[in-house]
Amino acid sequence: MNKAEAIDVNLYYKDFQALKNINFSAEPNSVTALIGPSGCGKSTFLRLFNRMNDLIEGVRIEGQVLLDGENVHQKNIQVDALRKKVGMVFQKPNPFPKSIFENVAYGLRVDGIKDKHLIEERVIKSLKQSALWDEVKDKLKKSALELSGGQQQRLCIARALAIEPSLILMDEPASALDPISTAKIEELIYELKKEYTIIIVTHNMQQAGRVSDNTAFFYMGELIEYDTTKKIFTNPENFRTQNYVTGRFG
Amino acid sequence: MTHLDTEIKQLKKDTIEMWNLVIVQMEKASKAMIDFDKGLAKDINTIEKRVDAFELKLNMDCENILALFNPVAIDLRFVIAVLKINYNLERIGDYANSIAGIVSHSDTEFDKELLDSTQLTKMFEISQTMLRESLEAFEYENNKLAREILTQDEQLDKINVSANAVLKNSIETNHDKIEQHLNILSIIRMLERVGDQTKNLAEEIIFFIEAKVLRHSKP
Questions:
Q1: How confident is the model over B21-43, as pLDDT tens digits?
Q2: Hey, where are the domains in chain A?
Q3: Which of A22, A127, A179, B115 could form a Cys-Cys staple with A9, CB 3.0–4.6 A?
Q4: In chain B, what are the domains?
Q5: Mean pLDDT value across residues B140-163
Q6: Is A233 exposed, middle or buried (0-12, 13-18, 19+ CB in 10 A)?
Q7: Taking CB atoms and an 8 Å cutoff, what residues of chain B touch A245?
Q8: Domain formed by A4-245, architecture
């Protein structure tokens, strides 16, 4: 069964159609990159899976968006419960003004978990998974805001991992980071794939090539081409995909 | 035109220039052998130095484009194709130079009858046509023409095989011309290799245009 799937999805912001008849599926333990020019609908598409588009006024969605085979837009779905299953990492690191430990423990506490031993176990595991443990293990009580940008972003990933999500969404997670921090995030994505399914929006073509198994090219709300990353970057079928990945997009 | 377009255009221009030099080398090698012109043989050696310089330049240019521009899709295939074309062209130039060396070191003119009976002259014509057409296919991105070159190589292979018997018979009755027979055999072998290298060029053109790998498959 596919981890994430979209069937005949259309999305409207009032009169404007932002997504046009999208069909898409992501297998478990895969990384899918969403690429395309600004305003093409890739972030809108990403936000379908944790229903963050619901927060936008006048949004209307048609079709089915499935997570583990269940339509996340059906009426009886509890959005809070859905967001526990779908972790999200944003462009700019957004740690809470709390300690490093509390940032990672936050989702667990909100979820009502009170077992200190379990919380500690999950925090350590998440920090190790996000390749941050060695750098912060001696200063867990220090403010997360004291960390560098790259460390803060990995902390946000650790925070997303702590709730053991089914799917991780990343919206340009390394665009605000220096090359070393970017490389760490990319290595992390590669490692996380063993346990998680990841969908990542990126404007960095080389990053899409390095981290993803499959790549989807969006243009003006349409999914133009979706194939293995190898195929998209060596011999795309559609001329618009070729023009975009080769930088000849006019 | 993007910066990468400009770099790729220049890479293509330089490759075409190198290709033309190799064509001239082969033409001169053929003429040097048929006319027994040792002066032409010397010219080939001079051109060889320019071909070698081009090989180094193109290698460096490809390396720079790969490192600085991270080309993908058709751009990546073009750069990879040029890297391999560059290697094959240099090898063809080497064969032309080796043929020139044989002419330079020969004491006697090549026997015209033997050149005809072994079809060595025809081999030169075929290999030069293949080389010129491969350049045309590269310059104008003509994959159809590139595919035609693949079949032309078979003619060279056939001549190469049939020449053995012709030379064997001829040696039996011309003991005084054994060295010339050996020289002709060497040139035939080299032209057969030139055919293979030119076939490689055509395969790289097809790879660049069609993204299809034809190596180790039948045309």
A1: 999 999 999 999 999 998 988 89
A2: 4-245
A3: A22
A4: 3-210 (1.20.58.220)
A5: 93
A6: buried
A7: 72-73
A8: 3-Layer(aba) Sandwich (3.40)
